[in-house]
């Protein structure tokens, strides 16, 4: 079990690195659409979900006009970002259960899973040392994705005046 302070500190860090990394999609959109940053901000903010923003970037990368090397880099980075989005969503869309000491003992995901014959919700996972390590790994991975996005952005001749 994780103390409430330890868990919330990590969730806060997760959100911090996520927000900073997701905002870099503005530059990727500007690069892929060959537009200025202001236009890319309008597009980014018009798409009000992470999923929609990643979908747009992936679709732009898949265009025939996108050089193969760029396509490969962008699609690989978006795949990594989507994997980490699952962790972020888990901690942002869960209800937390507490033990008798007030420590967080588990998370319950508030999401429906519907099959042909039933509806389930609320996958419960224990908040243990393994889970805290996963949270730390996710924070580190998002930071690495951010660095890779910055490398791509700085290499873009289209974005030189926009940074």
Name some characteristics of this structure.
single chain, 163 residues, alpha+beta, 3-stranded antiparallel beta sheet, two-stranded antiparallel ribbon, 6 helices, 63% helix, elongated
What does this structure look like?
The strands form 2 sheets. The chain has a 3-stranded antiparallel beta sheet with strand order 1-2-5. The chain has a two-stranded antiparallel sheet with strand order 3-4. It contains 6 helices and 5 strands, in the order H-H-H-H-H-E-E-E-E-E-H. It has helices at residues 4-23, 25-33, 37-46, 50-61, 68-92, 129-155, and strands spanning 94-98, 104-109, 112-114, 119-121, 124-126.
- SSE order: HHHHHEEEEEH
* Sheet with most strands: strand arrangement: 1-2-5
What is the average of the pLDDT values?
Answer: 92
**Shape field:** elongated
Q: Quick one: biggest sheet? A: 3 strands, antiparallel
| Terminus-to-terminus distance | 43 Å
Helix content: 55-70%
Poorly predicted regions: none
Class of secondary structure makeup:
alpha+beta
Number of strands: 5
Rg, nearest Å: 18 Å
The number of helical segments is 6
Task: Tell me what portion of residues adopts beta-strand conformation.
Answer: 5-15%
